[in-house]
Design brief:
- There is one protein chain.
- The chain is of the alpha/beta class and 630 residues long.
- The chain folds into three domains: 344 residues, TIM Barrel (Alpha-Beta Barrel), CATH 3.20.20; 83 residues, Golgi alpha-mannosidase II (Immunoglobulin-like, Sandwich); 115 residues, Trefoil (Trefoil (Acidic Fibroblast Growth Factor, subunit A)), CATH 2.80.10.50.
């Protein structure tokens, strides 16, 4: 909530106001940015700065990235009171090539704010009590939706926190349910909004008809609406049928589960209802449960069972040295690295096709815009003074999270294909994206010392480094020295506590060679025989009978043939058919995942003896599901 006191003293606020106009056209890396900060406490063991083992880019592509974005909820209702030049600058910071260059923007279709006690979180709706429309409403939200369209943001997404209050069981825009029988009314309303914007030249590419459906938000600090599992398919079918009747080309994403645990439990229950799945374009989940690698990997299993790609559509508000929910305002590289770790894991472990941060801007700055404090929240990327109306301060305050997200959003564009990276040094996370012959590699160094990285691209054609951009405690999207490249291997020294993006051109087009070697279980210490007709582990010998080849098709081939997931278990097949049961993903954490089911290769019962069974099992993140190439 708003504080009753300005975050700045009177003199400081006046000084900030005096320079606001001068900062309008300044680049984001210098305008009202926090002063240089020192790296915070390490959350990973310090890695040595000596030469590292070579990490490998998987020759097999995983998922295609759809977009990277953020939400326009709430803050727009404050910024409608700002100088138009500040609003225009915010649009540049979010949507332009010099800013974040977001490829997705989430527009909040308001529920009218009835009963909501905090004005910025009470967006207007367009429907009057008599059923007529007033399209002049929600000027604040429409302004930034129009900006996003003008800048060519690839995916514009309308999302709903609450249906109009008149259709709610409690008559409010917070708490309560959508009253049974009003599903078609609600669907027609959303379709009317979609049609209206289309006539204005703004096409909503996707609609999310409910958000965090297990949270009622009945405290009324913001809009919200309960949608029980049994009603979700009714709303999806009603909206899908209405869209088809109008020939709208707007996809539906659902169900915006608060956590991955709820996503795994609830999505299969509603999407399996008759005539529902055909209306769903993407599955959406939030990650407020701070999911483990096991929970994240199960996102792919849930998505595979439904036959739809998954999106990570909301996260914020972590802190206190981790990625779990905690009250803190942190503008430093610590917060930036935490955000970058979440993006990395959502792409490389959950295999989500999109990542959306919660609010792009926030006023929850606490007591100091330049330093960590326990009164604010890490919900925004850019901040503004909560008391702007009283003191006139319209300065924008940047966090390292803004720059961290840009290390992805400015380079990893729609259509880029993720290739997982295995064998990275301790404390380092690497993901690689192929953009039609151009590689984008994003590297997080969580260590408190400089760390050497050697990364083999498995390329059959020459590779040339063209760009390197870094965010650290003292750098914001700084152009830095390009890495050396020799024989398809990229070599660089990563500064402590930094995020670096490398862009590499691949002359002659993409090509990749196979990875070969034995696969040793972390927990058992035993190897996977290359003839797994018995599906068991054995003492590692270093011989050809335990050697596997992993290629660009995702095939694992051993002496006995191709590793194949069948209805009755694991087997080897003499030929490769291209079926999903013969394709595997190698996750950075050692998980070997079946593309058919999203399940992990698992040593049953965490056994260690020779002959212990290897099976497919839901991913848990356990050491008996971690395999490393020898």
């Amino acid at each position: 909530m708003r504080t009753s006191r300005s975050i700045l003293g009177t003199a400081a606020a006046a000084a900030a106001l005096a320079v606001t106009g001068a900062l309008m056209s300044a680049p984001p890396s210098t305008a009202a940015a926090p002063p240089s900060t020192t790296a915070g406490p390490s959350r990973a063991a310090a890695a040595p700065s000596t030469a590292a083992a070579t990490a490998e880019v998987s020759p097999h592509p995983a998922q295609t990235i759809d977009n990277i974005g953020a939400s326009g909820a709430w803050w727009v209702n404050d910024l409608k009171n700002f100088d138009p030049r500040v609003r225009a600058r915010v649009a540049r910071l979010l949507f332009s090539e010099r800013g974040l260059d977001l490829s997705a923007y989430r527009y909040n279709i308001g529920g009218g704010g009835t009963g909501v006690t905090y004005a910025p979180r009470a967006p207007e709706d367009f429907r009057g009590d008599d059923g007529t429309y007033d399209w002049s409403r929600d000027e604040a939200g429409r302004t930034f939706l129009e900006y996003a369209a003008e800048y060519g943001v690839e995916d514009l997404i309308g999302f709903v926190n609450s249906a109009p209050a008149g259709w709610k069981t409690n008559g409010k825009s917070c708490g309560g349910h959508l009253e049974a029988g009003h599903e078609r009314d609600f669907a027609r309303y959303i379709a009317d909004v979609t049609d209206h914007f289309a006539k204005q030249g703004i096409r909503l590419d996707y609609i999310s008809p409910f958000n965090e459906p297990t949270n009622s938000f009945d405290s009324c600090g913001q809009e919200g609406m309960l949608v029980d599992v049994g009603q979700r398919d009714d709303i999806v079918r009603a909206l899908g049928a209405e869209q088809r009747a109008r020939k709208q080309r707007t996809g539906i994403i659902a169900d915006e589960s608060t956590s991955t645990v709820k996503f795994h439990d609830e999505v299969p229950r509603w999407i399996s209802q008759p005539d529902t799945a055909r209306y769903v374009d993407k599955l959406a989940h939030h990650t407020y449960d701070n999911p483990s690698d096991g929970d994240r990997a199960r996102v792919l299993e849930t998505a595979k069972s439904a036959g739809r790609a998954s999106w990570s559509t909301e996260i914020c508000c972590f802190g206190k040295g981790g990625t779990g929910w905690a009250q803190e305002y942190d503008p430093t590289i610590d917060g930036g690295l935490s955000l970058s770790r979440i993006v990395h894991k959502d792409f490389a472990t959950a295999h989500d096709s999109a990542f959306h941060w919660w609010v792009a801007l926030s006023e929850m700055i606490g007591t100091d815009p330049y330093a960590k404090n326990d009164q604010g929240w890490n919900d925004g990327l850019i901040y503004y003074d909560p008391d702007y109306a009283e003191n006139g301060n319209q300065t924008l305050y940047f966090t390292k999270r803004y720059y961290a997200l840009g290390q992805y959003s400015r380079f990893v564009k729609p259509g880029a294909v993720l290739h997982n990276v295995t064998g990275a040094p301790p404390g380092v996370e690497v993901s690689a994206y192929d953009r039609k012959g151009t590689w984008v590699v994003v590297v997080n160094n969580h260590n408190t010392t400089d760390t050497a990285l050697n990364l083999h691209l498995n390329s059959k054609t020459p590779v040339r480094a063209t760009k390197a951009v870094r965010t650290s405690a003292t750098e914001d999207w700084a152009s830095v020295a390009r890495p050396s490249v020799s024989g398809g291997t990229v070599s660089a020294t990563l500064p402590a506590r930094s995020i670096t993006t490398y862009v590499l051109d691949q002359r002659g087009g993409p090509g990749s060679s196979a990875l070969t070697g034995a696969w040793q279980g972390e927990q058992s210490g035993k190897c996977l025989p290359a003839d797994v007709s018995g599906a068991s582990i054995a003492t590692c010998t270093g011989g050809a009978e335990q050697s596997w080849s992993y290629d660009a098709r995702g095939a694992l081939k051993g002496a006995g043939g191709y590793l194949t997931a069948t209805a009755s278990g694991l087997a080897t097949s003499p030929g490769f058919t291209g079926a999903a049961g013969q394709r595997w993903l190698l996750n950075a954490n050692g998980q070997i995942v079946s593309e058919a089911s999203g399940k992990c290769l698992d040593v049953s019962g965490e056994a260690t003896a020779d002959g212990s069974r290897v099976i497919l099992h839901s991913c848990t993140g356990g050491a008996n599901q971690a395999w490393f190439r020898r």
